[in-house]
Amino acid sequence: MIFRESTTEDLKSLERIYPAAFPDEDLLPVVRSLLTGSVDVLSLVAEDNGKVVGHVAFTICSVDAVYVGLLAPLCVDPAQHKQGIGSALVSEGFKRLQERAIDKVLVLGDPAYYSRFGFASERTIRAPYPMPEEWADAWQSVSLGTGLEQIEGPLIVPVVWQDPSLWG
Ligand SMILES: CC(C)(COP(=O)(O)OP(=O)(O)OC[C@H]1O[C@@H](n2cnc3c(N)ncnc32)[C@H](O)[C@@H]1OP(=O)(O)O)[C@@H](O)C(=O)NCCC(=O)NCCS
């Protein structure tokens, strides 16, 4: 298994695995924008014997002029779930973000899954759009470094994420 930055040539594979992993949600428009647009993003694929089996993206956003990463989306080919690929993609992403001096990562996702990476409910950084109250615990963050810097304010996201339907 290798982990590498994605290229536009990976889109064909992602167009196969995203609908399989997310049968009720069409994330491909976002994925295409992340891979082909001018967004500052760390986009990694997991490749097994030449076949793309997973993907994660960390969009570089900001909070009060501090750069942070937004983890989304994360996807593993359903045929290869529970083999540690999702965890390895997230860990590899964290490592590469730290190399870019990014110390904070946010995610809107299931705490039951993301807590394993140290994510915990985020209360001082606001999501770009109001979310239903029952989703409050799904808005999470993790500090990759010392975590000493307290940042607060709205998360400023690039255009690709400026769509309320992606946030609720
Ligand atoms: C979530 C996902 C990326 C995990 O990929 P993976 O390669 O199977 O992950 P790992 O092997 O590292 O971890 C698997 C573990 O996570 C658990 N898990 C997966 N989704 C979970 C969830 N929503 N809540 C709690 N646990 C979850 C599995 O049950 C498994 O548990 P185990 O370690 O006790 O066996 C993959 O299931 C997927 O693509 N799901 C569909 C898309 C999705 O939900 N993406 C996340 C969007 S926020």
Secondary structure topology:
Blueprint: E1 2-5, H1 11-21, H2 28-36, E2 41-48, E3 51-63, E4 66-76, H3 85-99, E5 104-108, H4 111-114, E6 120-121, E7 125-126, E8 139-143, E9 153-154
Parallel strand pairs: 4-5, 7-9
Antiparallel strand pairs: 1-2, 2-3, 3-4, 5-8, 6-8
The structure holds coenzyme A (COA).
Question: Could you name the key traits of this structure?
Answer:
two-stranded parallel ribbon; 168 residues; globular; binds coenzyme A; alpha+beta; 7-stranded mixed sheet; Aminopeptidase
Structure description:
- The structure is a single chain.
- This protein has 168 residues and is an alpha+beta fold.
- The chain has a single domain (2-167), classed as Aminopeptidase, CATH 3.40.630.30.
- 23% of the residues lie in helices and 31% in strands.
- It has a seven-stranded mixed β-sheet with strand order 1-2-3-4-5-8-6, sandwiched between helices. Strands 7-9 form a two-stranded parallel sheet.
- Strand 2 and strand 3 (51-63) form a beta hairpin.
- The chain is globular.
- The N and C termini lie far apart (34 Å).
- The model has no long low-confidence stretch (mean pLDDT 95).
- Coenzyme A binds next to strand 4, helix 3 and helix 4.
